[in-house]
Input
Amino acid sequence: MNVLTQRKPAPYSLAAPRSRHRTYTSRLGSVAYHAVLIALCFLILLPLIWMISSSLKTNNQIFVYPPQFFPHHPHWSNYPAALRYIDFWRYFANSLLIAAFTVAGTLFSCTLTAYSFSRLRWPGRNLLFGICMATLMLPFQVQMIPLYIIYFHLHWIGTFLPLIVPPFFGNALYIFLLRQFFLTIPRDLSDAAIVDGAGPLRTFWSVIIPLIRPALAVVAVFSFLDAWQDFLAPLIYLDDPSTYTLSLGLQLYYSVHQTAWAYLMCASVVFTLPSVVLFFVAQRTFSRGITLTGLKG
Amino acid sequence: MSIRRRDVSRLSVGLLFAAPWIIGFFAITLYPSLASLYYSFTSFNTLQPPVWVGLQNFQQMFTSDPIFWTSVRNTLYFVAIGVPSTLILALSFALLLSQKRRFVGMYRALIYVPVVVPPVVTAIIWVWILNPENGLLNSGLAVLHVPQPGWLADPSWAKPALLIMSTWGFGQAMVIMLAGLQDVPEHLYEAAMIDGAGAVRRFWHVTLPMMSPVIFYTLVVNVIFSLQYFTQAFVAEGGGNNLGAPLNSTLLYSLYLYENAFSYFKMGYASAMAWILFLITVVATFLLFRFSRRFVYYEGGEQ
Output
């Protein structure tokens, strides 16, 4: 189901059913409808438009009162200057690296676990799955302090390890999502493979995996965004500035002298761009994921 | 005999495939949770080993730490106003966008965009827009000759500023509600129309009851997330130098917990706060489920 873009007839409609003599009013209604929605969309996106507009102003223009909606002479040169102002590309690369490991680890651990929880039959399976779901209720705050102590003793603080190792050990939400998907695959398919003499690993790899590519895409996209945008875990575990992610690095525009607003806006635009592009490119994947979990996006 | 051997082999294959999560469960979920439960009964500054102090942390929290109560009040305010505003906005937009019209797909996508903006950037943009002197919002209010609040600089306006920031991401809940609306059977609307029900009555007597499980689900998820709201509130006050400013008016529970742990290194106290947060989450979820029996309609009568 494609919630974001779907064009299937909507069951709920405020408009009365159409009859011929009402086409004129309904056309008027349609104009009003689109006018209202365009205005609302504009209002909701205004903060982002304002971010872009501010990123193209000089530090003098930015404080002009009343504010100019769009600068007459956009300062594109802000961008290279802003990205030199802090070690932007290093933080960008750090974020990307952590996100890549997170995606790989999450796909590896959650696919195997979800497969076991849905397609294999073994005693104790449902109990363990129940425990796995229960951990969804546990706030990260409960684990974060002992994890800090553990990582501290392992000399992991200030390295990427506290962020890139845990994804290889499962994530309850994505296990749930993948399990939902596994359950929709007819049992006959894997049974046929077993009759042909394939073991569980072989069945998993050559029968099941090709069938769940759409679900893997959902997990890849969502876990990428999780890692790309995460703030609390990097804040706690990355104390060496050379390991900062972009979420942390943007703070530096505040602390160096006074806030360099125009530069900060440039960096924010570049930081936001991958997420937004990914969303528009992978809209179908987003919709599928949201309807499967109802949680993430 | 052979049956038992088959069971054992099934078990070992099952465990093997689930091994990543099982190892993770013990190493990064169960052990840390129990450790923090233990720390919550100790005084622990990370330099010396934890010292058992019994219930002292909890006693201090409830009886002699007014800032703890400030953070609780701020968080409750944030949940009590933020979650309903988000749900009402989400449902209204979902109703608007579930109509069969051109471009609705585009509108849905555009309204969802704030959800994919990194939380740090969300905070930065809003701090900039809510700037009391030359921010976009106050400049607009000045044109309309409306008094301009100090927003994040004014203790009585900082919480509403935070609420504006968090409500901006209502697209998340909207999309879930859209999915719910698509599952309401059309024949119910047709029957209601034949009975002469107008749009308002169709909403109250068909849409709302049929949507109640979805609304309830969004409510629970939003309450849990709001209780842990951290990033935007942290960044909005300039990145950790003056958490909760002005005058602790934006000091949410998770901020005060972070401050105790990583600014004051009171790990025992912070662990105690973390466990109280967990208990609040469990109790809130339980109460919502109890309460829901009266209001949530499940088709087919299955609970």
In short: The radius of gyration of chain B is 24 Å. The mean pLDDT of chain B is 90. Chain B touches chain A through 110 residues (CB under 8 Å).
